[in-house]
User: Fold this.
Amino acid sequence: MLSRLSLIFFVLVVTGCAQTAPKQQQTEMGNLLVPEPAPLSIRSQVAIARFGQILSNAELTDEDKAQLHFQRGMLYDSVGLGGLAQFDYNRAINFKPDMAEAYNSLGVHMVQQEEFSRAYEAFDSTLDIDPGYDFAFLNRGIALYYGGRADLAVSDLATFANKAPDDPFRVLWAYFAESEYAPQTARQQLTQRRENLPDSHWATGLVDLFLGQLTEKQLLDSLLNGITSEKELTDRLCEAYFYLGKYHEENNQPGVASNYFKFALSTNVYEYVEHRYARLELQRLRQNTVTD
Assistant:
């Protein structure tokens, strides 16, 4: 099982960490699991080529073309080809102007590019077409959060969290927005939401970390629990390292936070929310450093 995983430990030597992290944090970052970057899927690449062949068929209806462009866009996203994915989402909308999922995916790309007004429009369109499209609440909330409108993000992210109160990731995003808008009550809200989270979910430990009920070392030591494959490990590390970056960002340790975001990016798990926004977090850290 774990003997098949190419796990290695290493001592992190990064000037930024040495300058900003206390000795205890340097020690904890010295024993990190290094993810094996997810390989590009051969199956996805072949599927992309086949979609291109199918789309050349002149007998396709506009509905068919919209679905094919959207599906190919998702495949492009899964292998990190964001520009081509964005092109396909736009094409899907051209063929089917009421395609909620295409607007949602396009909006995510607008957030990554910090085109926040266009992102809001895309997510608004998604919800106008399909008011029950849950992930549009998450994505619009994230757009508002990164766009400096945390007061509006709170509502969307709380709505998303309340739809699945046993999901630690939803709870964390609601907490991030509340911390920006109402830091005096954010911890109280997080404590209340923690009561609905299952202890069996590994990511509940992330919530406990933010609440001060779990140490970073304890969390890192638990990351292998339940892991049976390299892919599971890589996916989990993408998530864990992103939220550890947010944790250190909250605790005014930008050097450590920066390295965690870079580790999340190194997993190549392109379709995960955590991978999508790790680079945006790095950009925000750099901007704050220049401003300071």
The radius of gyration is 20 Å. DSSP finds 16 helices and two strands in the chain. Confidence is low (pLDDT under 50) at residues 1-27. Residues 206 and 240 are 8 Å apart (CA to CA).
